[in-house]
Design goal:
The chain has 17 helices and 15 strands. Helices cover about 35% and strands about 15% of the residues. The protein is flat, with a radius of gyration of 29 Å. This is Proteophosphoglycan ppg4.
């Protein structure tokens, strides 16, 4: 006779402390908690020095770290030498993702590209994703592209990003290594790491021939992110050398401000005049080069809303996603996106992410300040709502109506619409409710004050009458 086990009843919901409610002293003794808590680390400024000494006292901290992000903007970070970074990174054998940023992070770059470190099989053996702060095409020795062969010694590396766009050093000072040094350009040697890369982010410079040599070896690339593109010609030349353009699925583009003519009178082939939106680079020829494209992302100075780009999109399967990123000059109106989707019809992207317009964010409510003493002044709205972000378009009824129409059409057409512009409608609704609530409570508070003043006056009159 076979006995069938009775299923266990579901665990009851209990209102008792969870793991994270335990004292830190106890949590420090639980290995699984360490693995979770220390899997991702974010270092900012002098915190790197703190981590350095913490790793010396407790090496287990480094063994659990899988992702490290370093923001190195303060002059104090300059004391973190290449040797310092070599020691710190050597204590992180499980590290898979490394990202560093800031004008003082170049010494980390130098430590990673050091051939002695790279050849050490115990130095970052699990590294898969690497995001470096300097553009190796434009920095002087010893940080130039000649050190890139060191990357061959990271066997699991599949995602690589170099450099910042042209605006980066302009906003935070010059490159710590100084101006670019002039030297004889040498071709990139055959590198095994380039054949392994599936994800590459690069910044274009005057040394475009180096980038072409670089891209010619990327035989498995499915994602390409290119920044500071000086002109459509340079982008076209880079895409031409891709050995497998048919497998590229994601293309993210950021054109340089210098890439577009100053006025429409000097327009040449490849540019479109968007009127109030300015002159843009048409993405049509680049879309046609990539038959397997699934995700297209761009910001300022270029467009896919012109007739040629729409024609190119109609000739291929619908994009999985179109991302419109924030840009200095880009303020694409929702009615343009709506017309674009209607024109594409069944060829419209399955998802459109509208991050090109600020959506705002919420903050404290007036009810967070309750109760308010009747004898006190009602809090000023500026003080109460100081941490709210309210975009200008919240007061533009036409703009709001256009966004709502775009949302309604997208829903009916089966297009998923996301991004800060869409989120802004929710923030706008919350702001309207908060504003109405604030005014209601303010009026009630002032009414109570007037009532109290009237009672005081009547009381004073009664006292005077009795006297």
């Amino acid at each position: 006779m076979t006995t069938v086990a009775t299923p266990s009843p579901p665990l009851p919901t209990m209102n008792h402390p969870t793991l994270v409610d335990l004292p830190l002293e106890l949590l420090d003794t639980i290995p699984c908690f360490d693995r979770r808590r220390l899997a991702t680390m974010n270092l900012r400024g002098a915190n790197g020095t703190v981590l350095y000494y913490a790793l010396k006292l407790r090496p287990a901290i480094g063994r659990h770290c899988k992702e490290l992000k370093v923001l190195s903007f303060m002059p104090i970070d300059a004391r973190c030498s290449e040797v310092w970074w070599s020691v710190l990174l050597s204590s992180m054998p499980a590290l898979e993702r490394l990202q560093c940023a800031g004008p003082y992070a170049y010494r980390m770059y130098s430590a990673i590209m050091d051939i002695t470190n790279a050849r050490n099989p115990n130095f970052l053996p699990q590294l898969r994703h690497l995001y470096l702060p300097l553009n190796p095409w434009i920095v002087p020795d010893p940080l130039r592209y000649e050190r890139i062969p060191s990357l061959d010694y990271y066997p699991n590396l599949e995602s690589l990003a170099f450099g910042y766009d042209e605006s980066y050093w302009g906003s935070s000072g010059t490159s710590p290594a100084g101006a670019a040094a002039e030297s004889t350009v040498q071709p990139i040697p055959p590198l095994a790491v380039l054949g392994r890369l599936r994800d590459l982010g690069i910044v274009v410079s005057s040394q475009s021939q180096i980038l072409e040599d670089f891209l010619q070896q990327t035989t498995h690339l499915v994602r390409l992110d290119i920044g500071s593109i000086p002109s459509p010609r340079e982008l076209s030349e880079l895409l031409e050398v891709l050995p497998r353009p048919d497998i590229l699925e994601t293309l993210e583009l950021r054109f340089s401000r210098k890439s577009v003519p100053a006025d429409a009178t000097s327009l040449s082939e490849g540019f479109v005049d968007d009127g109030d939106e300015g002159i843009r680079v048409s993405l049509a020829p680049f879309i046609r080069r990539l038959p397997g494209l699934k995700l297209l992302s761009f910001s300022d100075h270029c467009t896919c809303f012109d007739p040629n780009s729409i024609s190119a999109l109609k000739s291929m399967p619908p994009l999985h996603c179109l991302k419109l990123k924030w840009g200095f000059e880009m303020y694409l109106q929702p009615e343009v996106i709506l017309a674009f989707l209607k024109t594409l019809g069944g060829h419209a992207p399955r998802k459109v992410c509208c991050d090109h317009i600020e959506g705002g964010y919420t903050g404290k409510s007036i009810r967070d300040f309750l109760p308010i003493d009747p004898n006190d002044e009602f809090p000023d709205s500026f003080d109460v709502h100081a941490d709210w972000s309210i975009p200008e378009w919240f007061s533009d009824d036409v703009m709001i109506d256009d966004i709502r129409q775009l949302v309604e059409y997208s829903k009916a057409a089966g297009v998923e619409l996301t991004g800060s512009m869409v989120d802004g409608l929710d923030v706008k609704a919350k702001w309207d409710r908060e504003s109405a609530d604030y005014e209601l409570l303010r009026e009630e508070h002032e009414a109570r004050q007037r009532e109290a003043e009237t009672e005081d006056e009547e009381s004073d009159e009664e006292s005077d009458h009795e006297e």
